[in-house]
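Support case: pyridoxal-5'-phosphate complex. Customer-provided input:
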Amino acid sequence: MSSLLKANFQTTLPMAAHARGVFIYDSSGKDYLDGSGGAMTVSIGHGVKEVLDVMRVQAEKVCFTYRAQFSNQPAEDLADALTALAPGDLNHAFFVNSGSEGTELAMRIAIAYWRDRGRPTKTHILGRHISYHGMTMGALSMSGHEARRQDYSDLLHPFALAPAPYAYRSELPPDAYARSIVERWDAVIQECGPGKVAAVIVEPVVGAAGGALTPPPGYLKALQDICRKHDVLLIADEVITGMGRCGAWFACEHDDVTPDMIVTAKGMSSGYTPMGAVLLREPIVQAMAQGSGIGPFGHTFSGNPLSAAVCLAVVNYMRQHKILDNVRERGTQLEQGLRALSQRYAWLVDVRGKGLLWGFEFVTDAQRRTPPPAALKANERFAAHCRDAGLIVYPAGIAPYNNAAIVAPPLVISESEVRTLLQRLEAGMRAFAQEFGLDIPT
Ligand SMILES: Cc1ncc(COP(=O)(O)O)c(C=O)c1O
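Agent response - structure generated as follows:
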């Protein structure tokens, strides 16, 4: 075993040697189309010269200053850029170094906000079954991710959970189902007691935990109305869905919603540096300013000039190259390709998603929606077969099934690269079908 531990001690991974655009090359020269942008992270592709140039120039000026001792221009400019892109009066930003730090900071801000408004009992943050907000203990407390929670159960806050938007496994007709998942939110907040609830946190499209579970249109708007009715803040975890991934700068815009806070991370850095942000609405900041005057902020590397300059270069690149237009066009192409595969391979079901974030499940009986036995970890086997075929996909772990995958390529992917992605995906599907005894069309 190498001195560098991997999450699974038994795994041997290919060694990444270099990467350009949507391709990663290993040390043997084999190329992999980065069909999930790593963990739905790479937005503008690998090795972009403009970003590398900024990285070097900024490094020569100053890499690090401490946030309580100096401000720095790249961080100021990045905050301006992100808040200008965000909807409504999300006018302020604080920077963190990961998605987990971001969701956990949003949790602390929600609690501080209510304390500063004289309501210190509002400390609970409600989430959903089948959700993931990060690995730190606060973030995990808000997550409905059984596999990742189970080892720490009594150390986590037992925050209440509402159902995820998972229509595929519901017996209700679509309209009734859509109504039921919203109404359940109202009941969950009432059961917990609105006097105790500081905020609700949701991913606009459920990523890693749900294989791109996508709510019906209007869901987020209805949830916002319920939150307002009960004096509860709405936090949108856009760690995956933000920064263009779903075709708008932030996915909450699809429902015309300005949440009280947006957490964003992966795509804003495109993987060039570890960085995330919490964007806050004006009233939240004003309440804290007029209350304690202090935000519950604080990590050593927050808003460091080097990471900020790099993220700003990523955002500028996205704006200059009109990346959102590409997401819409290539998103349609990818959706059509996935739906066509699902038609031919009856065991690949419930293609769902938005923009360039797509997921699907594998079943052994499409009529009964039967997943392969969870112990076989079909999601990991599927990703392994795709990797052999030269395509990286993300194995999503819908509890308790382990039967989904995510395809979420860099947002700059071209038309011919989407075709290559679909060809390699089909090759991976055929090998997977052979292993699991599923139908392979001629
Ligand atoms: C929706 C969501 N929130 C939060 C996180 C945590 O982000 P990080 O891994 O950067 O801590 C993730 C990571 O996958 C995520 O998908």
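The mean pLDDT is 96.

Case will auto-close in a few days if no follow-up is received.
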